[in-house]
Amino acid sequence: MNTTKEEIGLKVKGFIQENFIFNDKVLDPQESLLGSGTIDSTGILEVISFLELTYGIHFEDNELVANNFDSIAKIQSFMMQKLGGAGS
Amino acid sequence: MLVHEYLTRAARRFPEKIALRCGDSRLTYRELYRSSTALAAFLVQNGLQRGDRVVILLENSPEAVISLFAALRAGGCYLIVNPRTPQERIAFIMNHSGAKFLVVSKNQLAWISASRHSFADLRSVIFAGGTAPDDSYSDFESACRTAESGSFPEPGEDDLATILYTSGSAGVQKGVMLTHRNVDTVVSSVSEYLQHTSDDIVLGLLQLSFGYGLLQVLVTFKSGGRIVLEKGYGFPYDIVRRIKEERITGLAGVPTMFSLLLQLTSLEKEDLSSVRYLTNAAAALPPSFIPKLKSVFPAAKLYLMHGLTECLRTTYLPPEELDLRPTSVGKGMPNVELWIEDEDGKRIEDGRTGELVVRGANVMKGYWNAPDETARVLKPGRNSSERILHTGDLFRMDGDGYFYFVSRKDEMIKSRGEKVSPLEVENVIYTLDEIAEARVIGVPDAMLGQAIKAEVVLKEGRGLSERDILAVCKKHLEDYKVPHFVVFLPSLPKTLGGKIKRTIS
């Protein structure tokens, strides 16, 4: 079954909501996760591990950059590319 | 020297030099100086008087740096508060410090709008991050274009430069008061042993709200170097890229950060030879990291250091001693006297463990509005006018006079370099109705120093998951105070008097 961008968005949003947000903050998909103070440095790594586990993939060193993971929208685009490229 | 004079002096020496890079924004010393001076004028014109507190509730950003220098230039005292601090804690700091000014970004806007009326001394909120939402906010950009009129109050070296809030053992926040002289003493000593120059380009990955994170910026500005400020270290390959791109020469880190970097398998292939020094503080660096760091950063000297909020920095290990004593944090830095005392206040020099005592111009003036807490740690020194700091950190010394951190004297847990009060975490866990007993302890952890373990006993017939306990902790506590493990037990060990035992037997 093909994973869609929307599904990835929902999963990541759910994970962040459940683990990092304990007030009435509404997540904006375009907002920088680190820059907005939503998640701290170690939290970002939890998100990355969550993605690796959920989708059974491994990220290369040079993929661990803000451009791929610093917002829900960026995660969605990058994951689509990664999953598509992996042929799953 | 007054702390804001670092910027004034560097702007005179290197006006066109890039002083600060953060993301895509680059500011020269002249631009930084002009913006902070204009913002200082804004603060004074809006009623800031000498000694008034300015709370800066911002992530690492150019606005945070401009605001801190502006507060000092205006004769005020700044408090940088990490925006990830729980709201109730921020509210406490606002009121306890009697903050008159607050600088915020859009991330805090909603709750600040709702709760600002409860901050009794607050006069003005400055909004950094676009157009101010309404007239009750001042716009940061416009404030940074305020024309100077009249003169600034001239603070002295004994005026407070900053208050750093830290957790006390009872879980109560204490505000460490540091004067310009305190801060400048430490900045000068650190600059001296790191041999900092205007050619240094420092990668700032630590939060400015953290004493160690603040020092990396001030040391750089005092020497007229460049700081490349990041919002965190969550993206390890970005760190590598930034080091190469900016030809970084200095990197201040904590074990967690070094551990993340060393997990990159391709690191050996990267050219990181521009880095001439690495520093580690806040928690002990696992000795196994040392050879790896040396191989990845072939030109770097590695400095192991110790400090605490109450005096910022105490020791450093000269890099040439590293192979001989990889677990030592070294000797006292320049201009500081250190010794170890036993329970009776006698000096220990025979290798036994005792409390580290600090004497020097780096020692804080006390805790803000907390004379009893202050008297417990600042005690009369060699002459009646001086106060020496009893750190609560247990140390031992080897035969050559090098210091080794052993543990905390009180029950405080030291995790990720931050002090965590077990009582504070237990109190949060006890707010859950299902909990019968709770005990929070520190367990050894290579990366964190100590990991936080919560042991809980549930009331009969009640169910609760680890996730429920972590959720309540995450809601009311800073990230570093949230337990790493939760264990459910049928009962907890008690003292004869029926109290839960504190120590692990």
Q: Give the N-to-C terminal Cα separation of chain B.
A: 50 Å
Biggest sheet layout of chain A: none
CATH architecture of the largest domain in chain B: 3-Layer(aba) Sandwich
What would you report as the Rg of chain B, rounded to the nearest angstrom? 23 Å
Please identify the structural class of chain A as seen in this structure. Answer: mainly alpha
Apparent shape of chain A: globular
Strand residue content of chain A: under 5%
Number of strands of chain A: 0
Our count of helices of chain B gives 14
Order of helices and strands of chain A: HHHH
Multimerization status: heterodimer
Distance between the termini of chain A: 8 Å
Structure description:
The complex is a heterodimer of chains A (88) and B (505). With 88 residues, chain A is an all-alpha fold. Chain A has four helices and no strands. In chain B, strand 23 and strand 24 (418-420) form a beta hairpin. Chain B is α/β, with parallel strands linked by helices. A nine-stranded mixed beta sheet of chain B has the order 2-1-11-10-12-13-14-15-16, sandwiched between helices. Chain B is 28% helix and 27% strand. Chain B folds into three domains: 5-155, Rossmann fold; 182-408, Rossmann fold, CATH 3.40.50.12780; 413-488, ANL, C-terminal domain (GMP Synthetase, Chain A, domain 3). Chain A binds chain B through residues 19-20, 22-25, 32, 34-45, 60-66, 69-70, and chain B through 59, 82-84, 87, 107, 110-111, 205, 231-238, 240-241, 256-257, 260, 264-267, 471, 474-475, 479.
